[in-house]
From TrEMBL:
Family statement: Belongs to the inositol monophosphatase superfamily.
Gene3D superfamilies per record: 3.40.190.80, Fructose-1,6-Bisphosphatase, subunit A, domain 1
Keywords for the protein's UniProt record, in alphabetical order: Hydrolase, Magnesium, Metal-binding
Pfam families for this protein: Inositol_P
Species of provenance: Bradyrhizobium denitrificans
InterPro entries linked: Inositol_monoP_metal-BS, Inositol_monoP_superfamily, Inositol_monophosphatase-like
Name under which the protein is recorded: Inositol monophosphatase family protein
Cofactor: Mg(2+)
UniProt xrefs under PROSITE patterns: IMP_1
Length: 262
């Protein structure tokens, strides 16, 4: 990853601001959580609630006020073009979890520099947990976070948000990889990526993701010692297909890619 020296020097300041944002919008999420909140279906059939829209509106307002030249890419309100920096935000990652009372939904705040993932934050409002990542350092609760030293799929703890997302040609790679792992579990949305960064699981395979679902995760996992790419092993970008593989170690990632390819 090639980033300007100015950006590297400012990483902590950007992350401090991201933490302020997460602190500010967390009460909005909690005020609607486990209430009779209504939702509507978007064009892709995914649900959206008033909480999603209120949180994104607040994030965009605060980002534009602090960094007016920066771009913003949000799930609910689209893209605002800017300079080399773009904030990539998902107000509620796991809206289905949110509306069904499952507490592991999160807010994702990422920052790209020259279109490359640079800084990221995962905030879990219902549990008060937070992961923050920048080049060279990922923290959980202010303490350095590291992935587990798992190097073989046969020893790995596998997660995906839902097996229902794997259809048609995606189903066979999912079954090959998840059945080759030592253990497989389902559910969690962005929370499972935090678990991977903290060494509690080792492999995550997903499909159908959008840039706001994964751009904040890349710096968190990479600085924790893991790898995250598409299913071909290519770096994730806003142009990626939505096929995501995350692994605790490079060796594990390479074996997982080979299994996916069959």
């Amino acid at each position: 990853m090639v980033l300007s020296s100015i950006a590297a020097e400012q990483a902590d300041a950007y992350l401090a601001f991201a933490a302020e944002l997460a602190d500010e919008v967390r009460p909005i999420a909690l005020s609607y959580f486990r209430t009779a909140v209504e939702f509507t279906a978007k064009s892709d059939d995914s649900p959206v609630t008033v909480a999603d829209r209120l949180i994104e509106a607040r994030l965009r307002e605060r980002i534009s006020a602090r960094y007016p030249s920066h771009g913003i890419y949000g799930e609910e309100m689209g893209v605002k073009q800017g300079d080399a920096f773009t904030w990539v935000i998902d107000p509620i990652d796991g809206t289905k979890s949110f509306i069904t009372g499952f507490p592991l939904f999160g807010t994702l705040i990422g920052l790209t520099c020259d279109r490359q993932p640079f800084c990221g934050l995962i905030d879990i409002p219902a549990t008060g947990e937070r992961w923050i990542g920048r080049p060279g350092l990922t923290t959980y609760g202010g303490v350095r976070s590291r992935t587990r030293d798992c190097r073989r799929v046969a020893d790995a703890r596998f997660y995906t948000t839902s097996p229902d997302t794997f259809a048609d040609a995606d189903r066979a790679p999912f079954e090959r990889l998840s059945n080759a792992a030592k253990m497989r579990r389902f559910g969690g949305d962005c929370y499972i990526y935090g678990l991977l960064a903290s060494g509690h699981c080792d492999l995550i395979l997903e499909t159908g993701l959008q840039p706001y679902d994964y751009m904040a995760l890349v710096p968190i996992l990479e600085a924790a010692g893991g790898r995250i790419t598409d299913w071909d092993g290519a770096p994730l970008s806003v142009e990626s297909s939505g096929h995501v593989l995350a692994s605790a170690t490079p060796a594990l990632h390479d074996e997982a890619l080979a299994i996916i390819r069959g």
